[in-house]
Amino acid sequence: MHLRPVLLATLLCGALVAPAVAQAPVRTSHSAKKVTPKAPLKALLEREVSRKAPFSNLASVSNTQRDSIIEHANQLLGVKYKWAGTNPDKGLDCSGFVKYVFAKLGIDLPHRAAELAKLGGSVGKDTSEMQPGDLLVFGKGSRISHVGIYIGNGNMIHASSSNRRVVEAPVMKYRAPGGLQWKGVRRVIALDSTGTGDR
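RE: above sequence
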């Protein structure tokens, strides 16, 4: 009999505390294991994506725009090579060539091969996986010093210091001078999923 009032008081007190506990934010201790997102997602979560950044163009490039990359790159064939050049009238270097072609689509890229090699996502060094507009980066050791644009059908276009002009070359047969090695492929744009056709 004496337990009844105590039991009733305990239930009433529990009913009042429960909503407060339910609304309280869940706190985690520093010792609790944190779930870290995978690298690309983590990078996007850690920074605000600029509307002008290559990531913002990942889902907005149509077949027509991708074809215009090839067209603009082809129009520059034969333009003379000039170190640090960004103007085709005066000459282009490798990253100046890439910067100029992508600027035609309104995409502002840096004028350094090493910075271009950090943009977008990595793609396998396999022409069956590569798409026109992908960047091919070359270097020695950990240093990236050359870049070209893949245009499809196993070929790339780049501003060649050894040829002293912008040239087309077969990717798998290309041997960069100075002992440079093909380090990888970067996809700074991707084809819009609503587009039709493919190369």
